[in-house]
Amino acid sequence: MSDYTAGSLVSARGRDWVVLPESANDMLVLRPLGGSDDDVAAVFPAFEDVRSAEFPPPSPDDLGDDLAAGMLRSALRIGFRSGAGPFRSLAGIAVEPRAYQLVPLMMALRQKTVRLLISDDVGIGKTVEAGLIASELLAQGSARKLAVLCAPALAEQWQEELRTKFGIDAELVLASTVSKLERKLDLGQSLFDRHPHVVVSTDFIKSTRHRDDFVKHCPDLVIVDEAHSCVAADEKSSAQNQLRYELLQRIADDADRHLLLVTATPHSGKESAFRALLGLVKPELAAAELDTDAGRRLLAAHFVQRKRADVRQFLSARDGLADDSLREDTAFPADREFKDETYRLSSAYRALLDDAIAYAGERVSAAGDHGKREARIAWWSAIALLRSLVSSPRAAAQTLRTRSATAAALTAEEADLLGAPLTRDSSDSDALEGLDVAPGAELGEPGARLAELADRAATLEGAEEDWKLAALVKQIKALLGKGYHPIVFCRYIPTAEYVAEHLAEALGKKTFVRAVTGTLSPQQRLQRIEELAEESSGARRVLVATDCLSEGVNLQHHFDAVVHYDLAWNPTRHDQREGRVDRYGQKTDIVKVVTLYGSDNGIDGKVLEVLIRKHRQIWKDLGISVSVPDAMSSGVTDAVVEWLLMRNRRPEQASLFEVETIGARSAVVEAEWQSAADREKASRSRFAQRTIRPEEVAREVAAVRDTLGRAGEVRDFVRQSLGALEAVLRTDGDNFTADLTGAPVGLRDALAPVVGGDVVRPVPFRASAAVARGEAALVRTDPVVGALAGYVLNSALDEKVSGPRPARRCGVVRTKGVETRTTLLVVRYRFHLTLPSRSGERQLVAEDARLLAFEGAPANARWLAPDDARALLDLTADENTDPAFGKRTMTRVLDGLPETNAHLESFGDELAAELLASHRRVRSASGEIVRGVQVVAQKPADVLGAYVYLPVAGGVA
Q1: pLDDT tens for residues 800-820?
Q2: Fewer CB within 10 Å: C terminus or N terminus of the chain?
């Protein structure tokens, strides 16, 4: 490296810069003083004038008021992108993690090679937890490349989360993008060498053509989303699950590869599936005795699973801490309010259903005489016909006119493989893509009887004959009247389109209704949702969707109620639907859930009674969802269909079948389900997260907040600075909007890129960190808050900035809060860090801003405790200060400040020792890494601000 060490100040190109560790002998990598990583530049000293620089002292000619010191400190801390804490990435990411989300990160840092199964409940924030670990490992140099494996429908969302929240630019590797990406490769180059960070479709990469190349060039950090769908629990697992499992086994075989498995349902009702996941994390766990202390300790280092009740209130006295000073409350919705709304069939619809059941029964009976293959094909066709008829007239008509996929099957087994995904709602479905199409009921050439049934179905469209639709309109109007924005979930694409058309007509032009189905690509789905939210801002909106939106997509910012228009035949699907809105960031305290079911169609009532309501009760009792095994769920629904088909032809036998067979299967399901719930409850207790104790989290949270600031500081800073910059604020509880039309042009220019280029519209600021697009969160990492802090800091450092300047570097305040002259200093410290990692040493620069205060003259300073120094920020001016007197006083103090250098340097060494201790503490399990950590304070420290507090003329009140 050149003569300039990392962290030192240099002057070049007319401004001051901080030297970064990436500098070399002939090139300096510099970040502007007070700037961000986006402003980093390379300078060549051989060709440009580069000189050592010292931070200029404050000027007594530029005095501020009693808020100036707090403003400057807050602006400085908010702007830090390499804060002096044990977590290298927290200052630079655009999300403020909840305290409980630091637990998986702390678990990860105690492992040399990170292997974790993150199984927190739906809506707690597993994506953020995985992203925190990834960004930290990349920042430290413990990982160089990242791959996220996920369902193709979630790939764009993962890419967006990584980019906007963690600053990780990842390339999408999907079936639709790979050809374009491969055309840009050099000869013999792998796609995964060209792009260090990728989001990959698990279904695409598992194929033998692409799998080998991926495994050979696989990044050293892999995140697997919805990992439960990637394990083969037994020999009955689908071929697709087997392929995914084989891929993950090969990835996990490299013992040096970091691997994060993410799923809210690690068990899925199957112990073997749980063991398979654990075996990927650590082979010994696949057969470990988890009932023993040794087994539980082994598991605890690699497994974290918490439900909402565990984290709703965190770091409080209830967790064993001394007080509630660090307590953090997370605003999950308090409850789901369920309502089951029944409807009956009109006489015409009743007649159509009876005729269709009779037709399906005849066909199943006749097919049984021709062989097993024909019987299975007829069976799946019958189920498709019945489900589509119960769904909607349009779905029924399309099913009746469409050839069944099972008709092409050559064997009974193949018929089952083709028919089950389209007609059942298995929780083990390989993917939800393509499963919302109308399934088809024709088995051969179109027949007159099917055509006649299809024509009759088409005539039943509309609320006059379709009383299910009429019931929906009534329920939607009631929800809208109470201020809710509902999502209506349908089983089939034709049903969703039909429902959206009729709702739009029934609700009028003042309500915005849109449909999202599998006919749209995943990116188009998200785009349509955002368009609906934007065009319906301040108005009523309804989204109609199929189950293509029931997994992974976050909808809590725009919707707060769920209507199940079609009952799913597996209750896990209902929980997935409801989980799209019932999650962190939902502003409504009670999420409404309305379930429509037919009282006289023969199917819905039994599905609701045996499956849906039992699932709800377990959810209420445990606070989590427990999956019913698919085989048991389908056993009940198969019995219901069988009973329906025989009801018209053999009514006496059907009655006996209903009592004995359906009743027996229902009893078995309930018993097995309750047993699974009991096991889940016991496992939650046995495997509760105890690796990281609350007091350990509290210590690191306190360190982070001391370095980067607390939520209250950010909130006050934004309000005060915007007010000082002549923005008009309109308060709504803890939230407010800011009209910036009267603010300085420089501020509007600074905010334009992060608010979408439109600062004419008021900017909403929300107390919650989970905000919708177009809103700003009152957290330090929000881009709008960061841009505001940058403007306030730069205007404080540059006296030539026109317009109001909320922060100044000097101030003289007369107050009743002091008895003698007291001087407060805002000091910036820079540290040079050496962090060993598996890939070698990493050189980093960290920053910290501290308040130091002393009484009396600088030469005889009596230094105050840190808490007493912070308390000075809360003092207000009780008397005016004559400007000339203030300037003279400030001049005397500034002239004497060199006398404090020894104390400032000593304090910097103390901070360096604390920083070293914190780095060693969070990496306690990685001995060689702990021993190699080094922290050196860069000297001299920068005195950014000096503020003198004087007693009032009449003495202290």
Answers
A1: 888 899 999 999 999 999 999
A2: C
